[in-house]
Amino acid sequence: MKKFFAVALLSSAAVVAPAHAALVVGYTGGASAQPVGTTVIQNFDALAPGSSLGTNATVYDTNVSGQAARPAFDSTGGFGTVLTGGVYEINFAASTLFSFVLGSLDQYNSLELLFSSGPSTLLSGSQIVNGLGVASGSQTSIGSNGRVNYSVEAGDPSIIGAIFRSGGNSFEFDNLATNAVPEPTTWAMMLAGFGAMGVALRRRRRVAVSFA
């Protein structure tokens, strides 16, 4: 047990291999920094406590016995909670990295990751952290409270959403973050725009010189 917790304190990673892409799962038990290059897209702080997130999914800002327990690390303000039979779905711009803080992970929690093409990937219980933590339901243990990261290689189908479900009370999470990257067509438009800007600047310089 001591050996497990010593390992859990370190950022760990393992690979889940769905049919369409290699999904890398990283988990750090306890407190950890938000992944470099990511932006928080939902921290639930702008939503009033009690706000609905979907079927049997609610925003809490404090622990409620038998219903919700704030993730033990890196969570302040509001946090998302999916209760028995509940569903919370979030969609976002195509990303190669999706990260969030989870709390008191249980065996009846599940997470479905959505991709830009191909089938989704469904993880439940300790699969959510790929066995790098424990779905014990503990509200304080680093084995079930920490930060989980999901990443895919550039060129593989991007991660575009996630569905949180729970067969019991509850699945708690906070600080959902991504590293949304422009689509190829967007990159082309951006490069064309930069090129046009360069031409305009060169023209301006030539005009300025001709009048000097």
UniProtKB/TrEMBL annotation:
Residues 180-204 form the Ice-binding protein C-terminal domain. InterPro entries: Ice-binding_C. Residues 1-21 form the signal peptide. Keywords: Signal. It comes from the Bacteria. This is Ice-binding protein C-terminal domain-containing protein.
